[in-house]
């Protein structure tokens, strides 16, 4: 599953460190999420979406993407 965290972080003019501080995680966690090497909890996904001014569907799912992909 590809996510759009990096794209929205840059749109909001935030560094990985700034985003991490805003939601209470380590910068490395943001890096891992952006590179699809960490599966964040639902709580963390919601915090990311709220902080980045978007919703879960936009941030984490592509239109037409299914669980089988």
From TrEMBL:
Tell me the InterPro entries matching this sequence. Answer: Cro/C1-type_HTH (IPR001387), Lambda_DNA-bd_dom_sf (IPR010982)
Q: Which PROSITE patterns match?
A: HTH_CROC1
What domain of life does the native source organism fall in?
A: Bacteria
* Residues of the HTH cro/C1-type domain: 5-59
> What keywords sit in the KW lines?
DNA-binding
Q: Which PANTHER family match?
A: TRACRIPTIONAL REGULATORY PROTEIN-RELATED-RELATED (PTHR46558), TRANSCRIPTION REGULATOR (PTHR46558:SF5)
The name of this protein is: HTH cro/C1-type domain-containing protein
């Amino acid at each position: 599953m590809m996510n759009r965290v990096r794209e929205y972080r840059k749109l909001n003019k935030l560094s990985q460190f700034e985003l991490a501080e805003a939601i209470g995680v380590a910068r490395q966690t943001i890096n891992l999420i952006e590179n699809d090497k960490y599966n964040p909890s639902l709580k963390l996904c919601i915090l990311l979406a709220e902080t980045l001014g978007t919703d879960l569907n936009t941030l984490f799912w592509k239109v037409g993407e299914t669980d089988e992909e």
